[in-house]
Amino acid sequence: MELGVGECYSFSIEDEKEKKWKSLNFLPMIRDIMGDERDISDRAYLFHLTLARGFVEMATLAEAERNIRKVGLTGGVFQNTLLLKLTKDLLEESGFEVLIHSGVPPNDGGISLGQAFLAAGRFQK
User: Fold this and answer.
1) Residue 21 CA from chain centroid, whole number
2) Dist CA 115 CA 32 (whole Å)
3) What average pLDDT score do residues 37-43 get?
4) Between β-strands 70-73 and 97-100, what pairing exists: parallel, antiparallel or unpaired?
5) Which of 8, 80, 100, 116 could form a disulfide with 50 if both were Cys (CB 3.0 to 4.6 A apart)?
6) Any idea what the Cα angle at residue 54 is, between residues 60 and 2, rounded to 5°?
């Protein structure tokens, strides 16, 4: 794949002042993808890379505002191995410590285990 260094689709970070948080806006990426005539595999890769770069930008903002240096990658979305690898690599390149699942799945299986753990704890009291 012949992609430019650092290339990804467009995205923005919106400041939700009334809610006191920031959110990723990937609508510009959708417009970029629709106008992109490259091979579908290149577009799919850039889609994942754009998501990963967005996550890194959000982590960088959290670091600046709250001095956060650890990032946990969890949830069903991180069962996607390409997205997990891209995000983890970019975060580590930016100096973050990245926490990922190893013994418990990042999706509903992990939630179920946590629920079972809490229920077991309530019965032991």
Assistant:
1) 17
2) 41
3) 95
4) parallel
5) 8
6) 120
